[in-house]
Write a structure and sequence with these properties.
- The radius of gyration is 27 Å and the shape is flat.
- By secondary structure, the chain is an alpha/beta fold.
- The chain has seven helices and 34 strands.
- It folds into three domains: 139 residues, Thiol Ester Dehydrase, Chain A (Roll); 138 residues, Hexapeptide repeat proteins (UDP N-Acetylglucosamine Acyltransferase, domain 1); 133 residues, Udp N-acetylglucosamine O-acyltransferase, C-terminal domain (Udp N-acetylglucosamine O-acyltransferase, Domain 2).
- The strands form four sheets. An eleven-stranded mixed beta sheet has the order 7-10-13-16-19-22-25-28-31-33-34. Strands 8-11-14-17-20-23-26-29-32 form a nine-stranded parallel beta sheet, with no helix packed on it. An eight-stranded parallel beta sheet has the order 9-12-15-18-21-24-27-30, with no helix packed on it.
- 17% of the residues lie in helices and 31% in strands.
- A hairpin with a 2-residue loop joins β5 and β6.
Length: 431
């Protein structure tokens, strides 16, 4: 407890609060996030955030042409988003709560907000009557108040929706806000996180753990026994992260005892229709699987890879970060990171420049990767000597090139550096 006469210390550095995740729980909000950062936070009591207003804000296009002004209703929305962060991120708050704006009292607008302004948002929690909370918000530009209001916000805990025709074992655990569709089947050892959607006739079984905010469309099969003749029903697992999308007829099998016992999937992956992930695969995050893409057992796919439609990856292979596997390719060795691997049997077609550009890689990094791949593909050196030459070339020093070298050195099946029969040199140089 603070001593009399002493000021209470307030945190004045950036606070590690996941703004997008929390604001997804503010119902009926404006589509864009209107809070850029949190600079002060007393959990459950007070929050200070900032909004940098730029001329690129979409609402300026019509408000007003030639004289852009931030609408007053969006000033209220900005204060509401800050208040939602205060109410949702507190020690006594429910992890499954959602916030609705129910009313605005004593709103005052004292100054116009224009492009270039940095708006400081100060929100203080007032005494309320649950489930209605009250918060007073004040927006400043510099030391001048531009808007203030008292906000009435309803805080509600999500419920679970299970269709009457769904079969959910009593031992299964379903997170708040999740929806189980018609004729879906959930096994006794399944754990499903918050705000997931399980589509009609999907099956989730075995010792399967699924994180939050996953979308499982109709006819998906997750956690069923592996297609391995050595499997004898032992307890093995499928662990799935958050924010993944599983489209129709995707199948993901749990692990085997001989392969480590766990099939693991990261976050924010897209599995298009008919994708298959076999036992003991280790799948990273933000990966795209095209329709009908297939992973054999024990495959490791690293972050940001793209495996196109109809492609197959042989068991025990690796697919490196930011790799691109072309449509209907057959991958029998490790697919190189940052590169395009295409064909049956697959060959390497140089750097994945389009994918790297979309991911925001700096031009100097892309240039270094191009030169590293020229050593590997065009120098007529064998792989060992090419790797040594890359390590000796000080102009290529960067984490991405070092990752390529490490990827080659740690390969057990060998890496795919087989070039196309014709125009290989031209293909690499044109990237």
């Amino acid at each position: 407890m603070a001593c009399p006469g002493h000021r209470r210390l307030t945190l004045r550095i950036a606070v590690p609060i996941d703004i997008p995740v929390l604001l997804d729980r503010l119902c009926f909000r404006y589509p864009s996030f209107l809070v850029d950062a949190i600079v002060e936070h007393e959990p459950g009591r007070r929050l200070v955030a900032v909004k940098n207003v730029t001329v690129n804000e979409e609402f300026f296009q019509g408000h007003f042409p030639g004289a852009p002004l931030m609408p007053g209703v969006l000033m209220i929305e900005t204060l509401t988003q800050a208040a939602a962060l205060l109410l949702l991120h507190r020690e006594e708050g429910s992890a499954n709560a959602r916030v609705h704006l129910r009313g605005v009292d004593d709103a005052k607008f004292r100054r116009q907000v224009v492009p270039g302004d940095r708006v400081r948002l100060e929100v203080v929690r007032l005494v309320g009557r649950p489930p209605i909370e009250r918060a007073h918000g004040v927006a400043y530009v510099g030391d001048q108040i531009v808007a203030e209001a008292t906000l009435l916000l309803a805080v509600a805990t999500d419920t679970i929706e299970i269709h009457p025709t769904a079969i959910v074992h009593p031992g299964a655990m379903i997170g708040a806000g999740s929806v189980i569709g018609p004729h879906a089947q959930i096994g006794p050892h399944v754990r499903i996180g918050r705000n997931c959607r399980v589509g009609a006739s999907s099956v989730i079984d075995g010792w399967t753990e699924i994180g939050d905010e996953n979308e499982i469309t109709p006819m998906v099969s997750l956690g069923l026994p592996p297609q391995d003749q050595k499997y004898r029903g032992e307890e093995t697992r499928l662990i799935v992260g958050s924010h993944n999308i599983f489209r129709e007829f995707v199948t993901v099998h749990r692990g085997t005892r001989g392969g480590g016992g766990i099939t693991r999937i990261g976050d924010r992956n897209l599995f298009m229709a008919y994708t298959h992930v076999a036992h003991d695969c280790q799948v990273g995050s933000q990966i795209i699987f095209g329709n009908g893409a297939t992973l054999g057992g024990h495959v490791r796919v690293e972050d940001f890879a793209n495996i196109s439609a109809g492609s197959g990856v042989h068991q025990f292979c690796r697919v490196g970060r930011h790799a691109f596997i072309g449509g209907y390719s057959v991958v029998t060795r490790d697919a190189m990171p940052f590169a395009r691997t295409v064909g049956n049997r697959a060959r390497i077609y140089g750097l994945n420049t389009i994918g790297l550009s979309r991911r925001g890689f700096p031009s100097e990094v892309v240039s270094k990767l191009k030169r590293a791949y020229r050593y590997l593909l065009l120098s007529k050196l064998n792989t060992t000597r090419a790797v040594s030459r890359i390590e000796q070339d000080q102009t290529l020093v960067c984490p991405e090139v070092q990752y390529v070298v490490d990827f080659i050195r740690t390969s057990h099946r060998g890496v795919l550096l087989r070039r196309p029969a014709r125009r290989a040199e031209e293909t690499v140089l044109e990237d």
